Amino acid sequence: MITSSYRDSNEILKVSDVATKYPKSFKTIIITFQAKVKTKLIEMNLINELPNIEIGSSSGKFPVYEVVGFEDIIFYFSPIGAPITVGILEEIVYTFDIKNVVLYGACGVLDKAITSGKIVIPTKAYRDEGTSYHYMPASDFVDIYEHDKISNIFAAAGISYVKGYTWTTDAFYRETMEIFLERKKQGCIVVEMEISAVAAFAKLRGVNFYPFVYAADNLDSSNWDKRILGSLDIDSRVNYFLVARLLASKLS
Predict the structure, then answer these.
(1) Domains plus CATH for the chain?
(2) Strands, E, within the chain: which ranges?
């Protein structure tokens, strides 16, 4: 069973077997799934491509970017989903000696009364994906240890936020009504696809994890409501990058 997958034993394939150290180290990586904002960030001179490095999978390798004006911070656009996100982070953390992972992206709303108009800072993540079970022993939830640091930084900057549990799932087309009601009863206020897996990865690899999400589609309705899923305007996408950059800068 997947819940019996974790073993505290030596890995056969190590990240050092496939990844090469970059000549320069960085302290913090910002990772997101918002590829539509890339052109705008480059045009605004907020990010610049690092030379001689691409990271990805057999589906394609992609640039890593320096965050202009912040010498300790890099930026990467990740494909969606727990396995590929964690696999890429394994290589990035090793290659650049990363200590902090800032992750942001869209989420589905499970409780619209709580999350309306606010950034969501997860405090726990329900492990409804497969990757995390290879990184830590089985449990329903994984803790997000750095949530207080995130909220303190946001509060000092006047950024509106709410805290709560997130539900990480591998199968968004199987978010059934019964499971939705169960997760909501457990305290989950949003749903996404990566956070519990990255939290487990961070715990095993000894890096700090700082996630936040913003509401896109809404499940807390008589019918699924797309809302801004896939259609968020570019200025808002840039603003979420700036929030992530602020958070990363306080860590660096």
Answers:
(1) 21-251 (3.40.50.1580)
(2) 28-32, 47-57, 60-67, 73-77, 100-109, 119-128, 141-143, 161-169, 188-192, 208-218
**Residue 113 confidence class, pLDDT cut points 50, 70, 90:** confident
Cβ neighbours for 104, distance < 8 A, ≥ 6 positions apart: 30, 32, 211, 212, 213, 214, 240, 243, 244
In the DSSP assignment, the letter for residue 12 is S
Q: Encode 72-117 in three state secondary structure.
A: CEEEEECCCCHHHHHHHHHHHHHHHCCCEEEEEEEEEECCHHHHCC
Q: How far apart are CA 58 and CA 41, in angstroms?
A: 26
Per-residue model confidence (pLDDT) at position 86: 98
Token pair 């709560």: residue:
164
As a whole number of angstroms, the distance between CA 187 and CA 125 comes to: 10
The alpha carbons of the chain give a radius of gyration, in whole angstroms, of: 18
Task: Measure the CA–CA gap between 230 and 59, rounded to whole angstroms.
Answer: 21
Quick: pLDDT tens for 4-57. Answer: 999 999 999 999 999 999 999 999 999 999 888 999 999 999 999 999 999 988
3-state SS assignment for residue 67:
strand
Specify the amino acid at residue 150.
Answer: I
Per-residue pLDDT tens digits for 163-216: 999 999 999 899 898 998 999 999 999 999 999 999 999 999 999 999 999 986
Angle between helices 82-96 and 195-205 (to 10 degrees): 30
